[in-house]
Specification:
alpha+beta; 6 strands; 221 residues; four-stranded mixed β-sheet; two-stranded antiparallel ribbon
């Protein structure tokens, strides 16, 4: 009888352990599905700019910012009234040669002879802070500008919706930029990337960031 009762007891413990493992697996699967959906939706809604310096030397880093500024000034003249990501990409594609020419002229005017490679594609980005807005790591459509050997530090911004002119030092994204983001993201997606979100939303962003940064799951088009 005692052996029988111990068998029942051990069986119950075994069942509890199995159920706990199954619950853990179910939770992980749900989390990964959530991360995939949110990361894909966010990356599908924005078009980014990525400028890579020739090296990390002070001269090359300063050159990177000058190329960036001139490209942003030109971008603002052609993309200022864009109403969709697709429209932005199409306009940039149509003017890709002009972007390259502006970059080359800037490089030459600063006394350098670097080549520049400009491409439009889908690239991997780390988690990035724009004022009080944070975009999770993942794969995003972007205009990539590679200066010279492109072995220096990167600079990122969002071309659509426009966050490229945000003063990062102020830590504040203008309300009009936030409204543009709200127009292309769902309420939950916007809450996830906003630093003003509540605890539950912040937890979801940390979950999204954890899975993406550790490559446990990364959305890719």
């Amino acid at each position: 009888m005692k052996k029988f009762l111990n068998h029942i007891k051990n069986s119950k413990i075994g069942i509890i352990i199995i159920l706990s493992i199954l619950l853990f697996i179910y939770t992980i699967v749900c989390a990964m599905t959530y991360v995939e959906a949110v990361s894909s939706d966010i990356s599908d809604s924005v078009f980014r700019l990525h400028v890579i310096a020739n090296s990390d030397s002070e001269e090359d880093q300063n050159l990177k910012y000058k190329v960036r500024d001139n490209l942003l000034n030109y971008m603002n003249t052609i993309c200022n009234n864009c109403s969709s990501k697709e429209e932005s990409i199409n306009l940039v594609s149509e003017h890709q040669e002009e972007f390259e020419q502006i970059a080359l002229e800037t490089i030459n005017n600063e006394g350098f002879s670097y080549n520049v490679n400009i491409t439009i594609g889908n690239f991997e980005f780390p988690t990035k802070q724009y004022g009080d807005i944070s975009l999770p790591a993942g794969y995003y459509d972007a205009l990539r500008v590679e200066i010279g050997e492109a072995k220096g530090k990167n600079w990122w911004c969002v071309m659509f919706p426009s966050l490229c002119f945000v003063d990062i030092s102020s830590g504040v994204v203008p309300e009009e930029s936030k409204e543009e983001l709200k127009n292309v993201l769902s309420d939950e997606e916007y809450s996830i990337i906003s630093d003003n979100s509540n605890y539950d939303i912040k937890f979801k962003f940390k979950l999204l960031e954890l899975f993406s940064n550790n490559e446990l799951f990364t959305a890719k088009n």
